[in-house]
Amino acid sequence: MTVHVKLMGVLRSKLPGGKADLQVDEQSTVESVLSQLELSQGQIHLVMLNGEAVKEVKKALHDGDELTIFPPVAGG
């Protein structure tokens, strides 16, 4: 199945143009995609799934889902 991924801020360098359509297994979760992208919890502030904040990284994904991943923000 295909999952659409958008990386924001400094994470954009992990993917060409900061976004990609990833082919993943039917049993994939938010956590497995983060692992596939080699993103650790310390690099991530917020994950959105289809426009809603993800509270549980074990959440199952479905074909066509969109993940948007935000890094921690610093500054003032």
Describe the protein.
This protein has 76 residues and is mainly beta. The chain has a single domain, classed as Ubiquitin-like (UB roll) (Roll). 9% of the residues lie in helices and 29% in strands. The protein has 1 helix and 5 strands. The protein has a 5-stranded mixed beta sheet, with no helix packed on it. Strand 3 and strand 4 form a beta hairpin. The mean pLDDT is 94.
Topology:
Layout: E1 2-7, E2 19-23, H1 30-36, E3 46-49, E4 52-53, E5 66-70
Parallel strand pairs: 1-5
Antiparallel strand pairs: 1-2, 3-4, 3-5
Overall shape: globular
Q: Biggest sheet: strands, sense, closure?
A: 5 strands, mixed
CATH structural fold name:
Ubiquitin-like (UB roll)
Number of strands: 5
What is the average of the pLDDT values?
Answer: 94
CATH class: Alpha Beta
Strand fraction band? Answer: 25-35%
Oligomer: single chain
| Helical residue percent band | under 10%
Spatial arrangement of strands, main beta sheet: 2-1-5-3-4
Q: From N to C, what is the helix and strand string?
A: EEHEEE
Question: Which structural class matches the secondary elements?
Answer: mainly beta
- Number of separate helices: 1
